[in-house]
Amino acid sequence: MTLPVRTASFALAMSATLHAQDPFLLAPTIVEAERIDDEPSAVSVISRQSLDLFQVRSFSDLSGIVPGFNVVSADSRGFGQVVAMRGSTNTLFFGPPALGLTIDDVPLGDAYSYPSELLHLSEARVYRGPQGPNFGRNGPAGMVEMFTPRPGDKISTSITAEYGSYDHVGLGLNTSGPLGGNLSYTLQLFHDQRDGYIRNTFLNDETDDREATGGLLKLYWNPSDDFELSLRFYAEHVDDGSQRLTRLDSADRFTVLSDNPGVTNLERYQISLHSRKNLDWGKIETISSFQTWDLSPSTVDLDLANRFTPSPAFAGGFPIPVDARSSIDQNQDLISNEIRFTSNGDRPFTWQAGLFQLWTDNSGNTTRSTLGPFDPRFPGVFIPVLDETTTFSVEQLNLAAFANATFTLSDCLDFDAGLRLDYYRSEINRLKADNLANTTNVVRGSQDEVFVSPTLGLTYQATESVNLFARSSLGIKPGGYSAFVDAANNPTYDREENWSNEIGADFFSEDHNVRVGLRAYWDQISDYQVNQGALATTDFFILNADEVTSRGIEADLAWAPIDRLTIRGAFGYTNTEFDSFRDPNRPSTTYNGNEVPFVPEYSGSLGVRYEFESGFYVSAAGRVVGPTRFDSANTSAFTQDAYITADAEIGYMAENFSVTFYGTNLFDKGYYTFINPQIAAGSPGDPQQFGIRVRTTF
Q1: Are the CB atoms for 188 and 228 separated by under 8 Å?
Q2: 624-654: pLDDT as tens digits
Q3: Residue 28's domain spans which residues?
């Protein structure tokens, strides 16, 4: 085994094999993947069993399992979510992601289009730090790869049924196998629904119901051992009620008094064609995809009250109108093409290179209606209704060439180097109309930029059990346009540059069945892209903070102290502060020394599973999330304090059957997963729930 692959097997503390007989852990062959070779110290591979241990059902559930990674969820199927890695984030509605995502090698677009619910995965890989030279999809702060299972040598089918609190019903079908004639397939179908958590006392109903239906079909053609062609289809339909959003001053975070129930309707379709050709020197892979993500519509009651109830205030002290509503129709079309060349992995020189193209068209139509405020001396008398309509199209084209290589300098020392060249072009065409002022504001513009992202790294095998590594890299997020701001406020934002540095060590002891990974990093970020709310409005735009510094430490643990007992643990501490940032709305105000919004101070997880010889098993897992600020001023009212949640399962597994009783948030801990300072409201985290899951395989 080459040194990079050996180092990869040591580094994967979340899911690498501790002993071959433990069915909960990955087989060691899982690390025989070219992309792990280059920067093994930056990778966490999470197996299907680890995902089950922590009851991962959504993209945001990955938070805490991987150090430095966190998802701030606004509970709107990904729309408005913030995905953070080591202090780097995306902004809410416009702007590129800091953390890239691919599913079965298919790249996704902006962070709001990332899936809220997860398919049945074989594994997930999380790469920390800039990954431009290693992927077609740019990952200026990191990358997440998700993989669904491939077909086996014979047809296998499993059916899953689940019922739980809030009338939660989950149904799933997974089937795969050969079709004959060098053809094989995998098929996943799912349906998931539940009643709402939020009680709307004005409408006397739970308005945040959830329902999603979808499926994935993959067809494989293998006419020879050295060639494969595959076709992938994915479709999802979401029919949800209101966004889970309540006022921060409410006595019960799961109660709202609103005259507008709200809806979220969403459809997602993907089709992609993949090919692989093995040659004497390595292999050639191609991936082409078309995707469409359609939100039609998302409606929200911004004042979260009936029109005769006083409403909270903006952060700037301006009163919210008595009745304020938002309706958003938004669509993103995406076309991508990638060709990748990879060497066969023989030392002393291994390499990978590729070309990549990504085109996105983000278009939409939003309407914000306001009524009020009213004079209490004249009940029922309001100012006229204000309708502010924004129609926009933001297009972006990315062309890139990338390459990375590993040089073996000695039996115990490897040197890694990578380079990425990017061309970005962004265009905006936006029209904003105000019916009261009878004005129309038009914004049109385009910008081009070219930049280079290098990476350097060293991996040293100090002993058979200890590996040391160091890495320095540059990650760049392109500039662009925000459609929710007038020209006077400048809709343009500049590119963000992240100079990232890390050192670490990985320890493995086969005798003690333990793996430990330790890392420290220091990122210096220029022109940090910050989400900002416009005063006295519900508009969002993007600013650039001059300088941000992010420092942190991370640790992973995988341990099997005795047979049938498995322990998983992770912890990350992140200190991300503004070094230089002045508020353009208040020129005399600076946020120097403040914590960056949406980034928890720390996060971690610990999971334990024990399997009895009889087939019964028990597992328990807990997560901790540190204090998280939701505005640049670090206002205490808009800060979520640290909290801990705990989950558990008890079940029975036979060869073709399993039954599981589960509980989540066992102590019914109250917390917010997202806070909106502009309307003084937040999205409360999931309440305590219990359920039963049955699975049969044949």
Answers
A1: no
A2: 999 999 999 999 999 999 999 999 999 999 9
A3: 3-697
